[in-house]
Structure formats: structure tokens, C-alpha cells
Amino acid sequence: MTRDWLARIAGAGDLAALEAERVAALGKQGAVTALLKTLGGMSPEERQVRGPAIHGLREAVTAAIAARKTALDDAELERRLASETIDVTLPVDSGARGTVHPVSQVMDELAEIFADLGFAVATGPEIEDQWHNFTALNMPETHPARAMHDTFYLRAGEGEEAKVLRTHTSPVQIRTMQSQEPPIRIIAPGRTYRSDSDATHTPMFHQVEGLVIDRGIHMGHLKWTLETFLKAYFERDDIVLRLRPSYFPFTEPSAEVDVGYTIQNGRRVLGGSERWMELLGSGMVHPRVIAACGLDPDEWQGFAFGCGIDRLAMLKYGMDDLRAFFDGDVRWLKHYGFGA
Ligand code: PHE
């Protein structure tokens, strides 16, 4: 009897068959259960004789079921391990891949072009104090240009002056003149912020600042540098610039720089001098700005310019809506030739 049960349990081919054997032996209606029930109707003497065998049978069957279950579980695990191995030699589809953003691309191009002209890249904080963003740039508190900048002010602690999100990259001029000895030749690309939003303005945008401080610097150096930069950037020798008198508190004289273009097949094509488009602001660094940085304006002169990087990217790669720059849509990037 015991040997029959043990043989059947050992022969159960899977967990379902094993469960069927368990029910047949130990279930409510099971054969072993039935034998156990017979003990109740026996005389004490008979129970003493037959009891150990019947209990022994139940224990042997229980142990056999547990052993078989372990064996079946192990076999199942082995089978899964064998079937679920990964073939690392199979070719993979890596799916969508990230790509360099046009703004980063242009920043890299600018760094390369200006490196050839001997300019280093400088940086400054995006959360700036009002002295660096305005005051040192010849914009005292009462200056109307301060209101014109649509500035984001940060909440200030008791008795502290509010910091601002820098409204332009010009505070990097100040920080560079404070921390470096002239001669200075730097560009400072980075994020800038103004409370403004439409197809050509986003609250966060990018500028690149240029600054040269040396002895005997004049407007001719400024014009040559901008021409050389823009010809290299747009990869065209026929780029023509027009300097228009303008006003910035931190440059004197100041010039707005326009670039010539024509319309071909309904599209703007840079080059020539048929039409003009405003591109950047520039001028000779104001003596007061040089003095505010602790330098002697009689000894040191310089020029500076500030240019929208997003604008530069749009012109070179043909994008027309600035807001799309910051949507992070890979289809938009691909459309303009970025990424695979
Ligand atoms: N900071 C000016 C702006 O944001 C641009 C500029 C920079 C003009 C340097 C002159 C010199 O409009």
C-alpha cells in the first residue's frame, strides 16, 4: 500500500498531477484520510496494532509529496533558465536616440569660430545681483532701461536686495573684467530671461556676449570681428553688415548691427545689401563700465556685442517659430536635420 502511493507520487509528471495524487490520498475523500478515520471505530488493542502503520503511511505520503514538489519546482526553474537565456550576439534595435540641440550646436560653432580669433569662453550665474546685471553696466536704479528689460525678480529676504534672472549676458562682461587682467578677449554664451512670450520671444532665451578689452581698441576692431565671425558662421563671403547708430547705457558709441539679405523663392537668403535685418547690439565699452570694474578707462578701451543665439540658429537652419526650440519634440529636430 505505502509503496503504491509512493510510486504514484514519484511518477506525477507535473504539479497538477501531483495535486491530484495529494487529493486522492490526503483530501477529504482521500484514501489515507479514510484509513485514518477507521482508527476511531477500532478497539484500543486493534488501534495499537494498526495505528502506527496508518500514521506512518500518512507521514510517508506527506513527505513524498513535498519531495516531489521540490523536484518539479527545480525542473521548472531549470527549464525556464534554459529557455530564457539572452543571445547577446543578436542585432539590436536601439530605438529613438537623442541628438544635439540646435542651440547647443550653435554654441559649439561659436566657441570654435571665436577660438580661432583668440577668444576664450566665459560664464556667469543665471541668478544675478542687480549690481552686475544693471548698476555696473551704467544703469543706476532710476534708469529707464531697467524697467524696459521686463525683469524677473526673485523674492528677497528681509533687508536684502532682490536678485534677478539675468536679462542679458552683459553681466559676464563685468565679472570677467573684475576677475581677469586685460587684455581680455571672451565670448559668453548662455541662458537669459525676460518676461515676454510670442512667436519670436520666449521667457528663457539664449545670448552670446563678446568682450574685448585692450589698449587702443576702436570701432574698426569691432566691425572686423563681427564680419569675420558672421562670414564664418553663415559660411558665406558675401555677408554685408550695416552699423546703425543706437543707444545702450553700457556702450558709447553704440551700434545696432544689421545683416543684408535677399528674398529667393519666398525665403530669406543672407548676403548682399538689398534688404536689412537687425541682428545684434554692440558698441565701445562705456568708460564708466570700465571704471566700475576697477580698471583705468584712460588706459583700457574695448568693444562689446550681444547677439541672440536662438536667432542665429533660426537664420542658419531655417526655423521660424522660436517656441518650438523648447518643446523637446524629436520630430521637429529631425525635420531640421538634427539627429538620425
Ligand atoms: N545686452 C544688450 C541686450 O541684451 C546687447 C548688447 C551687448 C549691446 C553688448 C551692446 C553691447 O540687448
TrEMBL record:
<keyword id="KW-0030">Aminoacyl-tRNA synthetase</keyword>
<keyword id="KW-0436">Ligase</keyword>
<dbReference type="Pfam" id="PF02912">
    <property type="entry name" value="Phe_tRNA-synt_N"/>
</dbReference>
<dbReference type="InterPro" id="IPR022911">
    <property type="entry name" value="Phe_tRNA_ligase_alpha1_bac"/>
</dbReference>
<dbReference type="InterPro" id="IPR010978">
    <property type="entry name" value="tRNA-bd_arm"/>
</dbReference>
<dbReference type="InterPro" id="IPR006195">
    <property type="entry name" value="aa-tRNA-synth_II"/>
</dbReference>
<comment type="subunit">
    <text>Tetramer of two alpha and two beta subunits.</text>
</comment>
<keyword id="KW-0963">Cytoplasm</keyword>
<keyword id="KW-0547">Nucleotide-binding</keyword>
<dbReference type="InterPro" id="IPR004529">
    <property type="entry name" value="Phe-tRNA-synth_IIc_asu"/>
</dbReference>
<dbReference type="GO" id="GO:0000287">
    <property type="term" value="F:magnesium ion binding"/>
</dbReference>
<keyword id="KW-0479">Metal-binding</keyword>
<dbReference type="Pfam" id="PF01409">
    <property type="entry name" value="tRNA-synt_2d"/>
</dbReference>
<dbReference type="InterPro" id="IPR004188">
    <property type="entry name" value="Phe-tRNA_ligase_II_N"/>
</dbReference>
<feature type="binding site">
    <location>
        <position position="252"/>
    </location>
    <ligand>
        <name>Mg(2+)</name>
    </ligand>
</feature>
<protein>
    <recommendedName>
        <fullName>Phenylalanine--tRNA ligase alpha subunit</fullName>
        <ecNumber>6.1.1.20</ecNumber>
    </recommendedName>
</protein>
<feature type="domain" description="Aminoacyl-transfer RNA synthetases class-II family profile">
    <location>
        <begin position="104"/>
        <end position="340"/>
    </location>
</feature>
<dbReference type="InterPro" id="IPR002319">
    <property type="entry name" value="Phenylalanyl-tRNA_Synthase"/>
</dbReference>
<dbReference type="InterPro" id="IPR045864">
    <property type="entry name" value="aa-tRNA-synth_II/BPL/LPL"/>
</dbReference>
<keyword id="KW-0460">Magnesium</keyword>
<comment type="similarity">
    <text>Belongs to the class-II aminoacyl-tRNA synthetase family. Phe-tRNA synthetase alpha subunit type 1 subfamily.</text>
</comment>
<dbReference type="GO" id="GO:0006432">
    <property type="term" value="P:phenylalanyl-tRNA aminoacylation"/>
</dbReference>
<dbReference type="GO" id="GO:0005524">
    <property type="term" value="F:ATP binding"/>
</dbReference>
<dbReference type="GO" id="GO:0000049">
    <property type="term" value="F:tRNA binding"/>
</dbReference>
<dbReference type="GO" id="GO:0005737">
    <property type="term" value="C:cytoplasm"/>
</dbReference>
<keyword id="KW-0067">ATP-binding</keyword>
<keyword id="KW-0648">Protein biosynthesis</keyword>
<dbReference type="GO" id="GO:0004826">
    <property type="term" value="F:phenylalanine-tRNA ligase activity"/>
</dbReference>
